[in-house]
Amino acid sequence: MKRQIAIVLFLMGICLSSYAQTVINYPTVSRSNTRIVEITKIELLKDATVLHITATNPPNLWVSFSSKTILRDPKTSRTYELLKCDGYPLDKEHYMSKGRQEFKMYFAPLDANVSKVDFIEGNQSGAFRLSGIVIRNTIVMDNLEPAIHISASPGETIVIPAKTLRKFKKDKDLIIRITDR
Asked: Quick count: other Cβ atoms within 10 Å of Cβ 81?
């Protein structure tokens, strides 16, 4: 029992320490109402959630982003406000001479239990909406007593020490389920 508690604490420590520096490249998006906006990277920092965005539109046409843009947790409806934007003017028609522009939007830091977010650019007609952006998946190890739940970002590698695996009965496989909750 002491060993299981130690394993749980160890794995929780890994998850919590990695949360402060998690980077998600090209996150999965469930639904989008636009082809103009692409999120190329998300950084989960201690003091902010940074979205690296590429806006693409034919040259000399404009795109506008609202300063009222938010991230929303679809499970709880909690919203995370936009703190600042680097590399793109907000609340005005911006003509993209090259047809493509990269910039960063900084939002309030997400709670550690948030697994998906919605990017909501505003309430006006034509506002950009990207829904179901995957922040992390949940890994459940079913045959540990009690089961261990670990939050992991897409593409993140979780290492389970060999000594932990030795405690399983030799006739049982380690069962790992990955969910997107």
From this structure: 12
How far apart are the C-alpha atoms of 77 and 21, rounded to whole Å? 24
Using alpha carbons only, how large is the chain's radius of gyration in Å? 20
Short-list 36, 47, 103, 123, CA closest to 80: 47
Nearest to 44 by CA among 127, 149, 154, 132: 154
- pTM greater than 0.85 (yes/no): no
**Phi, psi angles (nearest 5°) of residue 63:** -135, 140
Q: Which residues contact 88 (CB under 8 A, 6 or more apart)?
A: 53, 55, 65, 94, 101, 103
Please give the chain's pLDDT, 181 residues, in tens. Answer: 555 555 555 555 555 444 446 888 999 999 999 999 999 999 999 999 999 999 998 888 888 999 999 999 999 999 999 999 999 999 999 888 788 899 999 999 999 889 899 999 987 888 899 999 998 765 555 555 555 566 666 666 666 666 666 555 554 555 565 655 4
